[in-house]
Please model this.
Amino acid sequence: QVPVVESGGGAVHSGGSLRLSCTAHGIFFSDKAVHWYRQRPRKQREVVAYIRKSGETIYAEFAKDRFIISRDNAKNTLDLQMGNLTPEDTARYYCLIGETWGQGTQVTVTV
Model:
């Protein structure tokens, strides 16, 4: 079984919303920092938001006021609620649980 699996990607119009989910299998989840990254076309992978072990949430500047990261330790899930999307948000979004990456989920935003 793949240890980290993302879902929820898709195609939306500008201004739309998407909710990404990440599920960890066979990983002790609650004691790890958890991250969402993205890789836009022809760009390096960049952090979107993360939750430290302390519970503090950190957002990239572009994600502030538009995205919300949340975790459910009981379900071993990490979500990313994204709103007011623009074509600049088109990317493959990846979940990082501790040091384990998922394979990503594609988000495409059209005008």
User: Anything to note?
Assistant: The mean pLDDT is 96.
